[in-house]
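[agent] plan:
  1. take the single chain provided in the ticket
  2. run structure prediction with default settings
  3. attach structure tokens to the ticket
  4. add a short note for the reviewer (M.T.)
[agent] executing step 1
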Amino acid sequence: MAFETNSKIEPEKVSVKLGKTETSIKGIVPEENKTSCLHNKVEEFEVDPFIKNLFQYFIEQFNMQHRPIVHCLIRKYIVNAKKNPVKIFNQLLKCPYRIYFTSLVGFFYEFGIGTTVDNKMALENYVQATKDTVSTSQVDSLSLLESFRLHNHYI
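[agent] step 2 finished; step 3 output follows
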């Protein structure tokens, strides 16, 4: 599932008053004018809190740990939560907002978490994750991605 955004929309100019001078800054949109193409859909759709937490944990571990250790930590996280890796993997595949979990799906394929190891599918998902672009307004509207902005890392 892919989301299309209209990339031809020009950022609005906003007047900012600094002391006695007023300056226009291109690209800053007042909060009341911000609308994300996904905003309403995201509010209607609830992502399983475990999936949100797993994704946040995945990102945090990639930022802190050496890569070969991360798959062990993810497996341990799932086992400690007493969750079935196959069910988690299937939830990721069926999620309407799978675009946000593409790298995690690739990771599951690469290390056989909830599925058999499939390097071809892992690569396809990693490549798709690099192609998927999420505009800043979309990211801002998703609390799921709040930790990415804090860490300034996107996987």
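[agent] step 4 note for reviewer: Confidence is low (pLDDT under 50) at residues 1-44, 135-141.
[agent] ticket updated
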